[in-house]
Specification:
About 15% of the residues lie in helices and about 30% in strands. By secondary structure, it is α+β, with helices and mostly antiparallel strands. The chain has three domains: about 80 residues, no CATH class; about 180 residues, Sandwich (Jelly Rolls); about 150 residues, Jelly Rolls (Sandwich). Helix 9 packs across helix 10. Pfam families: Cupin_1. InterPro entries: Bicupin_oxalate_deCO2ase/Oxase (IPR017774), Cupin_1 (IPR006045), GPI/OXD (IPR051610), RmlC-like_jellyroll (IPR014710), RmlC_Cupin_sf (IPR011051).
C-alpha cells in the first residue's frame, strides 16, 4: 500500500514525539526552544522570576555555587547570557560532576594545570589469589601531585598484604573495617596493633611491615607516600626477593639445609588469603631476644577531640601529637551544608586532599591574575600547591568529609580572615574600600576580633 504524503508526515511526527531525548533540556536549547516549566520547577536554586542555571536567561553576578547533581541539572556553558549550546558529543554525567569546568565562575582566568583526579579513573589491580585489590594516584595520573602519591587498598577478612618495605615513608588512614599492622623498628623492636575506621599508621622509610584484614569484612584504607613518583610496583616484597636469591644463599643466611626452602613461592604473593589471626597477645613473638618497639606507629585520629567551628569540625594530626610521623601531617575536616573551609593558604607544603563524602567546589588562586575552580566528590583527589590561596565550599545537601595531607612534619595554614583582623584598620580599609568607606566599616566590624574559624557557616544565602 502506498502512503500519502500527509500520512508519512503524520507518522514521522508520531515517531519524533515518541523519542524522549528529542525533548531533553539540552536538545531543546540546541533547537533554540525555551525550557518548559517541568525542567526547572523542582530546582532549589530557582526562585520566582529567575531562570534555571545553565540557561541563556540565567543571571548571577555573584557566581554562586550550583549543585548540579543534587538539583538534577544539565550544566551547559552559559554564564550571564554569554556562551552557547553544545553541538558535539557530550557526557552529561561527567558535566554534572564538574559543573564549574563546564561553566566556570567569571573570576576564573588563566592557564592553571589540572588539580583534580578521581580514583574511579585509576586502574585497579586485582590479584589472581583471593583477597583484595589496589589502585593508585601518583604524578603519572595527576601531574601536579609531585610531593605525595597515594594507594587505595582493599583487603578482605584474613587477606594479607605480604611482608614488605618501601623507599618512601608510608602514612595511612583506615577508611573502613579493621586491620592488623606489624612492623620492625630501626632498633630491632617489633610492633603490632589492631586499627579501626579513622585510625592512622606511619612507617618511616625502609621499615618492614605487613597488613592483614580483620573482622567480618576486612578493611579498606588510603596509603600516602612522601614522593609523588612512588609506584606500588616498586615495593620491596619478601617473596619477590627470595625468588631472586639463590637457595644456597638463603640456606646459608638461616643456617638451614637448602631443602627447607624447596617450596618457597616462585614469585611475589603481594596480596593473598591468609589464615585468621588470633589476638595480639597470642600472636606476639616470644623468642629469647625478641623485644617490643618503644615507638608507636599508630594513632587514633578520629578519637581526638575535634575543634568545633561555626560550620563544622577539624582534627589535626602531625608530629606534635603523632611523633613518629616526621614527613606527613594531616587534617580531618567536616564541612556542614552551607559552610566553607575558609579562604586560606599553606606556606610550607602542597595540599593533597582526599574527599570521603559530600560535594565541594574549590577555587585556586595562583597569583598573576590566574584562578581556576574544580569540583570534588567521594573518592576524588585534589591538589593545591603551597602558598596558593583557596577555599573549600560545601555545595551539596550533606556534610563534606575530607582529608588535607601534607609532606611536612607540621600542619600550618594562614587564615585570610585572621590576617585582616591582625592588620591595622587603616591599611585594610585603604586597600579594599578606598571608594566605599561605609562598607569598609561594615567589613572591619566583622574582622576586627581576628577570630580564626577554619570552617565558617554562611547565613546570607
Amino acid at each position: 500500500m502506498k502512503l500519502s504524503t500527509t500520512q508519512v508526515l503524520l507518522a514521522g511526527a508520531g515517531l519524533t514525539a515518541a523519542l524522549p531525548h528529542m525533548d531533553s533540556p539540552r536538545q531543546r536549547l540546541l533547537n533554540g526552544l525555551d525550557l518548559p516549566p517541568k525542567f526547572g520547577s523542582s530546582s532549589k536554586t530557582e526562585t520566582p522570576g529567575k531562570a534555571v542555571p545553565y540557561t541563556p536567561e540565567h543571571r548571577d553576578p555573584y557566581d554562586r555555587a550550583v549543585d548540579a547533581i543534587g538539583e538534577d541539572l544539565d550544566p551547559l556553558p552559559w554564564r550571564n547570557g554569554l556562551g552557547a549550546s553544545v553541538l558535539g558529543p557530550w557526557n552529561p554525567e561527567r558535566s554534572r560532576e564538574n559543573p564549574d569546568l563546564v561553566r566556570p565562575p567569571s573570576t576564573d582566568h588563566g592557564a592553571i594545570a589540572n588539580m583534580r583526579w578521581s580514583f574511579a579513573d585509576s586502574h585497579i589491580r586485582i590479584e589472581e589469589q583471593e583477597g583484595g585489590w589496589t589502585r593508585q594516584t601518583t604524578v603519572r595520573e595527576l601531574g601536579t601531585s609531585v610531593e605525595l602519591a597515594s594507594v587505595n587498598m582493599r583487603l578482605d577478612s584474613g587477606a594479607i598484604r605480604e611482608l614488605h618495605w618501601h623507599k618512601e615513608a608510608e602514612w595511612a588512614y583506615v577508611l573502613d573495617g579493621e586491620v592488623r599492622i606489624t612492623a620492625l623498628d630501626y632498633e630491632g623492636g617489633n610492633f603490632i596493633d589492631d586499627l579501626k575506621k579513622g585510625d592512622l599508621w606511619y612507617f618511616p622509610s625502609g621499615v618492614p611491615h605487613s597488613l592483614q584484614g580483620l573482622g567480618e569484612n576486612g578493611t579498606e584504607f588510603l596509603l600516602i607516600f612522601d614522593s609523588g613518583s612512588f609506584s606500588e610496583e616498586s615495593t620491596f616484597v619478601l617473596t619477590d626477593w627470595l625468588a631472586h636469591t639463590p637457595k644456597s644463599v638463603i640456606a646459608e643466611n638461616f643456617n638451614l639445609a637448602p631443602e627447607v626452602f624447596a617450596r618457597l613461592p616462585k614469585s611475589e604473593k603481594y596480596i593473598f588469603q591468609g589464615s585468621q589471626p588470633g589476638s595480639i597477645d597470642e600472636e606476639r613473638p616470644r623468642g629469647k631476644e625478641v623485644k617490643k618497639s618503644k615507638y608507636n606507629f599508630s594513632h587514633r585520629m578520629l578519637d581526638q577531640e575535634p575543634k568545633k567551628t561555626s560550620g563544622g569540625e577539624v582534627r589535626v594530626t602531625d608530629s606534635k601529637n603523632f611523633p613518629i610521623s616526621k614527613t606527613v601531617a594531616a587534617a580531618h575536616a567536616i564541612i556542614e551544608p552551607g559552610a566553607l573551609r575558609e579562604m586560606h593558604w599553606h606556606p610550607i607544603a602542597d595540599e593533597w586532599s582526599f574527599f570521603i563524602r559530600g560535594r565541594a567546589r574549590v577555587t585556586i588562586f595562583a597569583a598573576e591574575g590566574m584562578a581556576r575552580t574544580f569540583n570534588y566528590g567521594p573518592g576524588d583527589v585534589g591538589i593545591v600547591p603551597k602558598n596558593m590561596g583557596h577555599f573549600v565550599e560545601n555545595i551539596g545537601d550533606e556534610p563534606v568529609e575530607m582529608l588535607e595531607v601534607f609532606r611536612s612534619d607540621e600542619f600550618r595554614d594562614f587564615s585570610l580572615f585572621q590576617w585582616m583582623g591582625e592588620t591595622p584598620q587603616r591599611m585594610v580599609v585603604d586597600t579594599m574600600f578606598a571608594d566605599d568607606p561605609e562598607n569598609g566599616k561594615v567589613f572591619w566590624d566583622k574582622v576586627k576580633d581576628a577570630h580564626k574559624d577554619e570552617i565558617r557557616h554562611y547565613d546570607h544565602n
